[in-house]
Hints:
The complex is a heterodimer of chains A (331) and B (475).
Chain A: H1 21-24, E1 31-32, H2 38-56, H3 75-82, H4 96-120, E2 125-126, E3 137-141, H5 149-154, E4 158-163, H6 166-176, H7 180-185, E5 186-190, H8 193-200, E6 204-210, H9 219-229, E7 230-241, H10 245-258, H11 275-284, E8 287-298, E9 303-307, E10 313-320, H12 323-330
Parallel strand pairs in A: 3-4, 3-6, 4-5, 6-7
Antiparallel strand pairs in A: 1-2, 7-10, 8-9, 8-10
Helix pairs in contact in A: 8-9
Chain B: H1 2-34, E1 39-46, H2 50-60, E2 70-73, E3 92-95, H3 97-105, H4 108-114, E4 118-120, E5 122-127, E6 133-137, E7 146-150, H5 151-164, E8 169-172, E9 177-181, E10 196-200, E11 205-213, H6 220-224, E12 229-245, E13 253-259, E14 262-270, E15 273-280, H7 282-290, H8 293-305, H9 312-328, E16 342-345, E17 351-360, E18 364-365, E19 368-370, E20 376-377, H10 385-405, H11 413-441, H12 446-461, H13 463-474
Parallel strand pairs in B: 1-2, 1-11, 2-8, 5-13, 11-19
Antiparallel strand pairs in B: 3-7, 4-7, 5-6, 9-10, 10-11, 12-15, 12-16, 12-17, 13-14, 14-15, 17-20, 18-19
Helix pairs in contact in B: 2-5, 2-10, 4-5, 9-12, 10-11
Amino acid sequence: MNTIKYSNRLIKFLCNRSDFHGLCRKTAHLFHEEQVHWRKKSFSLSRHFRTTSQRLDLNDKPKVERPRAQTTIDEEEIKRFSALAQLWWDEEGEFTALHTMNELRVPLIVNALIEQKQKTGAESHQFKAHSQLEGFKILDVGSGGGILSEPLARLGAFVIGIDASEENIKIAQAHVIRNEEVACNIKYICATVEDLIESEERSFDCVIASEVVEHVLDAPMFIKACCKLVKPGGSMFLTTINRTNLSYLLGVVAAERLLRIVEPGTHNWNKFISPQDLQYLLDHNGFSTRLVHGMMYNPVTKRWSWTENTSINYALHAVCTDQALHVDGQT
Amino acid sequence: MAGVKAFFNVTNKYFHLSTHTKSSNIIYRYISSTSSVPRDVDIVISGGGMVGAAMACALAHNEIFEKKKIILLEAAPERGKYILPENYTNRTCALSPATVRLLESFGAWDEIKEMRYQPVKRMQVWDACSDALITFNNEDLNDDLAYIVENDVILAAIMNRLNAAGDNVEIHYSTSATSYKFPGEIDDEGNKESWLTVNVSNGQSLRTDLLIGADGFRSSVREKSNFHTMNFDYKQMAVVATLHLSESVENTVAWQRFLKTGPIALLPLSANLSSLVWSTTPENARNLLIIPEDSFVDAVNDAFWNDNDKDPLTGRILESFSSILQNLLPVGAVSKQLPPTVIGVEEKSRAAFPLSLTHSSNYVKPRIALIGDAAHRIHPLAGQGVNLGFGDVSCLNEILTKAVGLGSDPGSLKHLLEYETKRQRHVIPVMATIDGLQRLYTTNFSPLVLLRSLGLHTTNSLHFIKNRIIRQASV
Lengths: 331, 475
């Protein structure tokens, strides 16, 4: 999905309430149980993926039609965003809000994953500050230009970024190639979540769909597919826009038409989803929601902050708990 | 003090730079035609003076940068192991407690303690035109206000610690940046450059996430990347020298007297040696450098002792004001102490350099951060210059640690802007105060003399204000 994840703003006041301190605090003394050498594993993974990438012809040839029935992607949206793709990595450009959103979502993901590891981990050993996520296998759904995938890979995680737009995948690949360390930890694939189920079912420690759900055609199907990819005990992180009057006003009217923070037409309010609906979908797929928290964007400072109010943007963390249900969900 | 070091450092660098570029241009042209593939690194620090070396050292000892590749470009050749000379050198700095904390964080302060330094427990500042004076000392002389350390000693201590650190920092001696390709520039194929490329005088080209400009007040990083810079020439020269004192006392007081032509300061180096920083008119400075040593010593003593500029009216008003103040405030009489008599000057220790105020309106641009004198250079009258530079190092280190902890790109402007905001909030008030003092004291216009004398006297009587000033100066 083209992850043009737009989020709406026009928040006239600055909300500095940070109830989220627990999550955002620095993880100075963290432990984690086992070290898995993902680099080795990445070879076997690439084997798994060969089918997918060959089919979609990752490299140069024209786009191959994907079987429609299998997908939740809205082709219209892909076209719309491919045009914007050049601008992915300009921090001051179109995607500023996504770049600065990392200040909230990266600590959210890092802290939750490490906490999870500490709970389950029998043996604890010292984390290295520069590779806190070493040993985690993460799927970034709708990775776009790699704005979220790269930081996670820099922190040591093995990240697979999937995006339906080939141009995005190429931009992301071109950007990461300069840094060998990081490039080893990232794999970008032009694919959909549905494509991965076959080879990667229940293999990720963590699946992230940040600013994606509001762009998919069939959210229940999308969530179901994502859930299937998470290991038992693994995490799912979602950030999206609530379906409220306020979100229509701010996310569509203000952000797209008045303030032009986002390209007009980026968002379709009817696709927005409320946290309750999302939780319901996750419940049905054997996930228990650990946390729902609102996020606020200040268009003046161009920074995000946590807030209790989930009526516009929010982040959700759920953990795959019930194995039986999970199996159930597949059938 | 900071200015002292900065000037020499920069002149040194300038020298190397200009001699290098000519020969190296040829080399570079040759090499660039053969190998145009830039080497990818994470951070390049341009300038290995005290501040640049401290930056490299702070990053080298920072766990989070363990896997990053950091390159320090130093124009001077490698010096080899530093051997502490018997004679003190004339370039010194007054290090604030905050600077000491930074140096402690990577072990350089212990190295300095093993070499030599002199604590300052008390400071006395007074006016040549009146009896007004202010003294600073932390409660009962227990805590030190500052430490006087020779620049060479500071740099050697930092370099020792840098060499002892891991191999994530490479030091390239006798090299300097010759040209830069900045992010956003359009290359031959019409693509926008995402990274910053530094072409180095040894022919290498380095493509980096972040370039830290620590190349002194005539920073080439700043000039080439078109930072808007404010410049003001004080039309003063600072004369430095190492002086012999008449008697071996506990030499822990820093003395500064505001003369009409500029402040003269005597900073303790050892029991019987002090370092002089005398800001004065260029004519006087040139004269002070050429006169015989005897006459120089007389001139220094005269500058501290003479009463020629005293304003009689101000003196009388100040006297009555002081007696009123004493009735109002329960403070003991302020005793003016007398500075030690100078009896000699160390051979060949006299030198002079021009003083100016330089301030870059921005400290950062995409993938560029300026630190130390490259960003701001101030009058040495409060000895704050180098401390501000070390403050930049602490702050940038902190911000980069946070950025890397988030998995972020260290050259990302969103983090660098945070550094700029934090530092400018600190640097600009300090700079304005020092510039204001400098202007206030280079006049003998009676009403102003009276006002400043009353102001100084009042400040001296109010302990809470003084303590606040001390605290401010030590942050």
